[in-house]
Amino acid sequence: MAEKKRLIFLVDDEPIQNEMLKDYLSERFLYDIRTFDNGEDALQNMHLAPEIMVLDYHLNASKAKAKNGVDILKEVKDRYPDTQVIMLSGQDKIDVAVDSIKYGAYDYVVKGETAFSRMENIMNNVSELHKMKTVNRAYRNTIIFLSIGIGLIVILSIYLYWLKVPK
Asked: Which of 61, 80, 122, 158 has the most other CB atoms within 10 Å of its CB?
């Protein structure tokens, strides 16, 4: 069975920004990276289950009535809570960053000289979180399986014991 490639959505209404970030991340990570110039198109493709979404705050350059990044973030976290959203925006206002984190963003990065290297560090952290969740899920499933097995053995032992007890 072929392993499903992990997926990232880049959502920014500046195509050059999207392509630069896609190129940067493609050189460093083995993700399938899809780009979108507005949040609505990204939301329509969420059935593909991206592990990470990098989301800009202002998304109205290509669509005048487009939702902003925080509105898209709320919808993603409400409907797809396992997707980690990283806000990458030119907005350096503290209230935008606070709202982003408050509504479930994993982190907030202001576009600038160090933005891409910060994104690389954050992506490594998100990848570690994904690994830990996967291992945790495997341990939980193993414990459930073993608990059911032990429970069945105990029930079978009691049943067999009662069959042998003289009446």
From this structure: 122
Encoding tokens for residue 86?
């990283």
Q: Please say if the pLDDT value at position 148 is more than 90.
A: yes
| Beta strands per DSSP E along the chain | 7-11, 32-36, 52-55, 84-89, 107-110
pLDDT, tens digit, 9 for 90 and up, residues 66-96? 788 899 999 999 999 999 999 998 878 888 8
Spatial neighbors of 115 by CB under 8 A, at least 6 apart, are: 88, 109
Eight-state DSSP code of residue 89? E
DSSP codes joined into one string, 39-66: HHHHHHTGGG--SEEEE-S---SS-TTP
Whose CA is closest to 17, among 115, 85, 126?
115
What CATH number belongs to 7-133? 3.40.50.2300
pTM summary value:
0.78
Cα distance between residue 103 and residue 99, in whole Å: 6
